Structure formats: C-alpha cells, structure tokens
C-alpha cells in the first residue's frame, strides 16, 4: 500500500512540473524508479512508459495551442511509433547495462538543458516564438530521433523534442507543448507493446515488461498533476516556462552524473 501511495505522489509531482513545458515529467521518475519504487533493469523504461500512457492524454487535450495543428501532430505520431520500437530494442540490448544507460541520459539531456537555461537567464524574446508550422520533413526527422531515444530511456520523445523545437526551431514553449506531448504519447504506447513482446519472447536482458501497478499508480497521480500543470501553463510567462524546461533536463542529467561518480 505504501508503494502505491508513493507512486501516486511521485506521479502527481512530476506531471505538475512537466505539463506546463510540454513534457510528461517522466524524466524525474527515472531516479525514483529504482531508489524508491523498487523497479530494476529495462523495466524502469517500460514502467515509465505506462505512466506516460495514462497521464499524457489529458495533458495533451488541455495543452495550449493544441487545436488546428492536425498535420503536425500526425507527422510526429507517425514517426514516433516505429522509432519507439527501435528504442525499446536498444534498451534491452545495448543499453541494458546501467552505466551505458546513464551515459545516454546525460548525453541527451545535459546539452539541451544548459542551452535553455542560458536562454532563460538572458531573457526570453519579446515575441512568443515562431508561430509558423514546422516543416514536415525536419519535424519527422526530429520525431524519429527523439522518439527512438525516448523509447530507450522511457521518457517518451517529448522531453527531448520540446527543447529542440524551442532552441533550434524557435517555437514558443506553448506551441512546442502539443507536439512534445504527442511524441510522448505515441512513443509510450508503441514502446509498451514492444517491451511487453520482448519480455514475453525473451529478447534481450530481462526484466523488460513494465511493473504495471507502479506505472498505473504514477499515471493516475499524473492525471491530477497534469490538471494543475495545465493551469500553471496558462498563467506563467515564456521565460518562466523556458527556465522550468531547462531545469528539468539539467537536474536529471546531474542526477545521473552523481550516480556514475559513486
């Protein structure tokens, strides 16, 4: 029972933090899975994807700038589905080793986090970013890469797609949020199927199947957290959201640097 309560609380907190900036908050669950919730191996990534699958739909529907962007959302979803399968396979094979896994997290999140923190400290632009749609081909390539990495790490693609869209494509955080959350949801659903099949057919390093009760509990907590986060997103300024997104990436990377140094 205590494990369920902890999972509910953890899901609430990380979703409340992540939703305003277009990520699920699963980046913060990674260190908690092993140290607090007792999940190990590739199942950490798979269990995180359960959290995403449960908590992200509501966050996506309530995200700012969601309506009228069907074409962009379809491009992201279509690219992330196969990418997540590739990422899941990489997790149960090449990145089953904990040290390699932590290095991957650091390599992905640290540069993006630092770049966004610098931008936030220098001050957000007076305008709210580029309001034009991102071109289909670059968006698909970004979604493929971030979806594969997100499927490997277990945080969905949005935690990496959002910083790239803000930093490189000059999208506002509010406009990047629906694309990032779509990436997270698509990656999570596809990745869950892949991890479950890999575990059932003994492909790669076990355990690969998610710990369902932990994932569902964190996800339900995440639904409530997403409601709070969506309300925050409508009231916070661009500079605050950029700072929050950069902090999310940087803190997670720093956590893994500390773990590797031990």
Automatic annotation (TrEMBL):
Keywords tagged on the record: Cell membrane, Membrane, Transmembrane, Transmembrane helix
Protein family membership: Belongs to the 4-toluene sulfonate uptake permease (TSUP) (TC 2.A.102) family.
GO cellular component, one term: plasma membrane
Transmembrane segments: 41-61, 73-89, 101-118, 139-165, 210-233, 239-258
Ribonucleoprotein as UniProt keyword: no
Location in or out of the cell: Cell membrane; Membrane
UniProt-recorded name of the protein: Probable membrane transporter protein
Membrane topology: Multi-pass membrane protein
Classification via InterPro entries: TM_pro_TauE-like (IPR002781), TSUP/Inactive_protease-like (IPR051598)
Organism of this sequence: Herbidospora solisilvae
Pfam families (alphabetical): TauE
């Amino acid at each position: 029972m205590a494990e369920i309560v902890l999972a509910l609380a953890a899901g609430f907190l990380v979703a409340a933090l992540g939703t305003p900036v277009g990520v699920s908050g699963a980046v913060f669950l990674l260190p908690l899975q092993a140290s607090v919730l007792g999940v190990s191996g590739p199942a950490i990534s798979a269990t995180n994807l359960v959290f995403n699958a449960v908590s992200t739909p509501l966050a996506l529907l309530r995200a700012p700038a969601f309506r009228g962007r069907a074409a962009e959302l379809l491009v992201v979803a279509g690219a992330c589905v196969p990418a997540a399968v590739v990422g899941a396979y990489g997790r149960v094979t090449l990145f089953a080793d904990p040290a390699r896994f932590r290095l991957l997290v650091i390599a992905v999140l640290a540069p993006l986090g630092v770049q966004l923190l610098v931008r936030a400290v220098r001050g957000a632009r007076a305008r709210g970013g580029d309001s034009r749609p991102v071109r289909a081909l670059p968006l698909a390539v970004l979604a493929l890469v971030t979806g594969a990495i997100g499927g490997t790490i277990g945080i969905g693609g949005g935690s990496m797609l959002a910083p790239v869209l803000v930093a490189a494509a000059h999208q506002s955080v509010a406009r990047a949020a629906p694309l990032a959350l779509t990436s997270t949801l698509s990656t999570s659903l596809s990745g869950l199927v892949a991890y479950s099949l890999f575990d059932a057919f003994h492909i790669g390093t076990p355990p690969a199947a998610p710990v369902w009760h932990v994932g569902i509990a964190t996800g339900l907590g995440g639904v409530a957290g997403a409601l709070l986060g969506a309300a925050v997103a409508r009231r916070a300024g661009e500079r605050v959201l950029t700072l929050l997104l950069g902090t999310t990436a940087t803190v997670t990377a720093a956590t893994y640097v500390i773990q590797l140094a031990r």
